[in-house]
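Summary for the steering committee. One of the milestones for this cycle was to obtain a three-dimensional model of the protein with flavin-adenine dinucleotide bound, which we needed before selecting residues for the alanine scan. The sequence and ligand used are listed below.
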Amino acid sequence: MTSPAGPLRALSLPPRLNPLTSRHVAVIGSGAAGLVAARELGREGHSVVVFERGDQVGGTWVYTPKVESDPLGLDPRRAVVHSSLYDSLRTNLPREVMGFRDFPFVAREEDKNRDSRRFPGHSEVLEYLKEFAKEFGVEKLVRFETEVVYVGLVKSSDNFNKWKVRSKKRSGDEVGEIFDAIVVCNGHYSQPRIAQIPGIETWPGKQIHSHNFRVPEPFRDQVVILIGSAASAVDISRDIAGVAKQVHVASRSIAIEAIGKQPGYDNMWLHPMIKSAHEDGSVVFHDGSVIMADVILHCTGYKYHFPFLETDGTVSVDDNRVGPLYKHVFPPSLAPWLSFVGLPWKVIPFPLCELQSKWIASLLSERIMLPSEEEMTEDVKMFYSTLEVAGTPKRYTHQMPGLRQFDYDDWLAIQCGCSVSEDWRIKMYDSASKRKRTHPETYRDQWDDEDLILQAHHDFTKYFPNGINGY
Ligand SMILES: Cc1cc2nc3c(=O)[nH]c(=O)nc-3n(C[C@H](O)[C@H](O)[C@H](O)COP(=O)(O)OP(=O)(O)OC[C@H]3O[C@@H](n4cnc5c(N)ncnc54)[C@H](O)[C@@H]3O)c2cc1C
């Protein structure tokens, strides 16, 4: 594929003083990533169209009790339900940390319909995202109920490569349009990954992926094996333990000393990973223990999926690595004309998406410059070989564990000439993560970082001159 030529290949040019270039940009998705991308692109003077398959902004945070026809999410013909939220979900990050950098997620205590808890329920996050969209005029850029079904490169008459976007209205009408650049913000928590279990084909029980879990009631009096140890596995196992006969949590990362009855529960046990499943309904774990179970619930994560994107192999998903991508955003040969926002995980997504979006917007307007294609390619190669040397599987390419995300955020911030991560945000994230691990039952309602909350609120007064509650 020919890479779009253009003036952006020059190396390390100083910031330009002449007027910024405006591009016609398609943003795919109006979740947190798409909303902030649209805002940053608009601020930089680009013309923006946001395509949204659903009927409102918010993406993942639009909770629906609906589930898919295939509970494992494997049938390619199933009607996709986008959101994976369960009814009881509260955020796993404190709101001060979670919000966009310049639009803090503060409690609206004066409004009794809002959830002012520090770790609020999912509907409060949706309200916040709607407020964001309204405040920055993003909603009017969104074409609702319009699914992008194809994105591919075309050569236009002036020989400058552009993108063709074909989109389909819910009414069935399909439209083709031309854009200078594409920003992909379609989310990555809708396409289930499931655990491979020897013998599962003949095991007679039910299987479901957490994507299709909403409420615990269907598990009443059942013996449930739940696979996984990430945040939703921890929440869902506790939700289900309230009604199920037994809950057995199987995890690859369990410490040997933790195997056995879960303290504080009469009906929950921890196990190593499942070894095999059998026709008689039994499930065998790697430590030799055996359980007769009714249900296996896979809380085993999701796959990146871009069914609309056609790049002749320039970008592919290989064992959940989207690549090659420079800094998790640009394929070097298509930069900055194709970008991805929000791929990193084990991060604080909103501020990270905000910084990625500022970077993309400034590059498209030529306020700042990228390294050459060769240098970006070399950087990607180096990154992949560092992962390989460390023994990190490909599927963890976009994972940023611990405090690593802040180095990434700060690198982006420096590219864009804006401030690096606030000291309180780093410390608060660190302390909340530790409490989440040590006090999974109570971390959302008890904490000991009041000093950091005060620092955050002090910082937020920049954005709320009338005080946080009189914004
Ligand atoms: C169970 C769960 C709990 C979470 N908890 C937290 C938390 O506590 N705190 C936190 O900060 N984050 C949390 N997250 C992460 C969450 O995903 C991010 O906060 C954020 O919602 C990601 O936004 P996004 O815009 O990247 O994707 P999404 O919110 O998924 O939005 C993608 C949008 O793209 C649209 N779309 C997709 N394909 C197309 C297409 N072809 N054409 C048009 N539109 C399309 C979708 O309809 C959707 O609106 C959680 C995620 C899950 C699944």
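Key point for the committee: The chain has a mean pLDDT of 93.
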